[in-house]
Design goal:
With 194 residues, the chain is of the alpha/beta class. It contains seven helices and nine strands, in the order αααβαβαββαβββαββ. The chain has one domain: 3-Layer(aba) Sandwich (Rossmann fold), CATH 3.40.50. The longest helix has 11 residues. The structure holds S-adenosylmethionine. InterPro entries: Methyltransf_25 (IPR041698), SAM-dependent_MTases_sf (IPR029063).
Amino acid sequence: MSNNTLKFYQENASTYATHKSRPNSMLFPFLERCKAGGRILELGTGAGVDAQAILEAGFKLDATDGSSELAALATLHLGQEVKVMMFDELAATDTYDGVYACASLTHASKEDLPTIFEKIYRALVSGGSVWASFKVGSHDGTDSFGRYYNYISKEELDAFWKQAGPWSSITYESWEGSGFDEVPTSWVAITASK
Ligand SMILES: C[S@@+](CC[C@H](N)C(=O)[O-])C[C@H]1O[C@@H](n2cnc3c(N)ncnc32)[C@H](O)[C@@H]1O
């Protein structure tokens, strides 16, 4: 991942924080798969909009982000600390009932994805689930803001997730949407259970 990605979120944290006003609708079916009242890890929480919905649904939450500026804003928003943590620093084992990563791992360098997915598998308890969304494409690159994206195909994503561990189930959803850049974008999300 290029340093320009985190530089963008550091320098534009306040503007970015106003971009998302409502939680991701796909969060709620994911939470139904997770043990009620269980512990969720969020990777790349941003301004904490989905994090707030996770807490309001009665879960315990470890929210994390690589941008100290966004983590500080989300900490204020949530009233609980958001840890400054890069994806590849995840070191938990058998800890989480759910790992949630909305539009965040799409910034991880493609070569780092297999290791990050293994770390997510290791961090989940048996029966725990992960939900993560990605911008779809055929090769990685940067957007008009200089942010790096792995722009991955569903097939390549599927191969990486399957290498990460013996999941009991893996499903995908695809849709057409957009993002902060307001460019029409193809998205894919994985839901997998350990
Ligand atoms: C597109 S935003 C999504 C934020 C939030 N999940 C949402 O849906 O609004 C991507 C987030 O991932 C974080 N991020 C990017 N690269 C990261 C990395 N390598 N490690 C940790 N966080 C990272 C950014 O700081 C940013 O908050």
